[in-house]
Design a protein that fits this description.
Blueprint: H1 4-9, E1 13-15, E2 19-21, H2 23-35, H3 41-64, E3 71-72, H4 74-101, H5 107-145, H6 152-161, H7 166-174, H8 177-187, H9 190-203, H10 207-230, H11 236-240, H12 248-251, H13 260-268, E4 273-274, H14 288-297, H15 304-320, H16 329-347
Parallel strand pairs: 3-4
Antiparallel strand pairs: 1-2
Length: about 350
Amino acid sequence: MSSTSDSAERPTAPVGNGIAINPSRLQIVAGRWLMFSDYGAAAQRHMAIVWSCVLACALADVIWLPNSRLTFISSNWIEIVQGVVCCVLAGAFIAYASSRLRGDARFPAVILRTALGMTELLWRAALPIGALLTAGATLSYLITAADLPLQDASLARLDRDLGFDWPRFLDATNSSPLLASLLTRAYQTIGPVAELAIVWLALNRRGERLAEMIAVLSLSTVALCIGMWLVPAAGGFAYYKPAPQLFGNFAALGEMWSFAQTFNMLRNGSLSVIDLSALQGIVSFPSFHTMLGVMTVYPLRDTRWLMIPVLLVNATMIVATMPVGGHHLADVLAGAGLTIGAIFLVRLRRGDD
């Protein structure tokens, strides 16, 4: 990275009405926002993985979408542009405010600078995560709409080979209203827990650890798309078609297998648009809930007072993926295995913690 003095000595390039732009300054800003360059070489390696995964998913979307029966509605582009503009405006405001406060030793100024740093890190994380989820979700819709032969029979057979009986497990967990309620609520915690992990890392200025978490998420997303392409599945509820009395206590707390309608509409062609404002999770194999459950515990590994409660909640949530989310046990094992593999890949060539 260029030093401050080097940056000052380099000529600026006039643009338009004479306003000068310093190329070195732009490079530094781009490095901070896209590559987390101010958090060291490890963070930059993590972010290189992230943007490579985003590019891979986006490239697959660009190639596949024109040859599919789905269309990317025009309002999606408005949402994407709005998101990018929000990040640019946030970056400009944070940079301006920070420069005005730089060198001010008064206590309010110190507090504001700290808050701006935390806010900046959150915005910087939101940019690649948003790009990844947009490209990954679009690809998951394209894969589902391809209407590939379902492999639930093979997954059910694998469960039985492992000694797991899905209908019996559903019946056993449904037998207690208290347990059904606990599992249903645990299943719904996955979004808030993931957001908690991201916010915690940002508030503590753990940019390298946050970049690591996003890299694991990126590799897991690519692995998920490959998995659902190779092993398309509808899940336990669609395969076993359990009698209502086997899941009555779960159904009383909300809709079972909530993504069934979108999943089926994509496969039969009655849903022909991708609307980013109305996306539904449609993945059975591997379990994305399980993936998030593993990856949100890992970055908290050196904060035990927080990691242990998150671990307990996520472990309960992973159990809930089968009776509440309708996943086969094989879905859960695949999700956990792929995410652990992603963690090992991200940690490759690292010598610290």
